[in-house]
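A quick aside before the break. I want you to see a complete sequence-to-structure record at least once, exactly as it would be stored in a machine-readable document. Don't worry about memorizing anything.
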Amino acid sequence: MTENEKKVSDRIRQRKRRYHLTILILMVLLLLTLFVVQCELSKMQSDMLAEREAMLDSISTYDNLRLDSLKRYNDSLEAARADSIARYNDSLAIQQPKELSPEEKAHQDSIAKRRKEIRDSLEREKKALEDSLKQARAAVADSIARADSIRKADSIAYANRDSIPPEATIVPPEGRYYDPIQLKVKCDEYKCKTYYSIGDTNHIQELTKAVDYNKTGDVYYLAEDSAGNRTAWQKVHYDMASDNVCGKNAYPVPVNGKTVCVDAYEYPNQPDAVVKDMVSHEQAKTLCANAGKRLCQFDEWSAACKGKDNLRYSYGSSYKPAKCNTNSSKARRAGRKEQCRSWYGMYDMNGNLWEWTDSPAEGAANRYLVAGGAWDTQNQSKCTDTKYSFYPQNQYNFVGFRCCADAKP
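That is the input. The structure line, written in tokens, reads:
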């Protein structure tokens, strides 16, 4: 590659990185905006509920003050009446009854009339007090009923606002396994319930924690969010095998009538290890040979990626940005993307690092195919995607490898 070609290639990569960075920033800003809007809506709802509670408290306080005032007024009337009667009885106390004069009789009638007026006034005040209390109780009950109705309407409106079901995934993904696994269903929403059923959809159970599983067959799963939205049943198939002839972290793959042992992870073939980059083709071959293996041929690599159903991606037939490391700025540790697993058990075959193969590029002397895409190749990371503009002596920070070996008979 000439110096100009290298400069052009570098400029293209820089533009792609700036473009990917711009898209990432826009996505982050959009997520932040959605988060702020959701927070404001929650705050408005909390403020409305607080205002309603304050209104009910003020009504209750006013009612208590009014009842207390009426009680004090009634007590003062009763005390005044009792005092008036006592003074009148004292004034009329006599040793012996005597015939009243016309003036005294008129005065006594006047007092009796006054007593009747006081009694009638007290009865009216008592009735007015009872009516007032009845109206106050009715007003409070009506206010509470309206508040409950508003809360119920708000609750219904909130529940109806979300009608989109969540997204659910099961881990580990379907495929062939040689050891017992633990099933978990993950949901993309908070407060999400998950369910599973083994064999069919007639034995549904809530999946509150990981469950042990070691049976060949189908598993169905779904998720339900806090608003009651459910996903449709989704099915995965597990093949629990016991015939691994390939040793640790390598699994058998049928290729053109023979069985090839393919490493489960990019070199150094350890889960959660930092994957090896900046390695030439010759160095990759040497490292595989030191491990008693060899660099994979492209048809072997592709067969391990496509699985038994000849898929375009290790996880399915269509591109899913979140499944594998295909839309980021660097390589991840081996196996971090647990959904990025092929049927036969190989991780990170789509994205993360381009991988050297030992297959020469057709029509390009002294060049070899690399397969599977890197961390920024997005949907150009299929099981059949290759590049051949790599000289075997060059080292790149986006190219790694994995090893293969012939299965022992």
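Two observations worth writing down. Confidence is low (pLDDT under 50) at residues 93-97. DSSP finds four helices and 16 strands in the chain. We'll return to this after the break.
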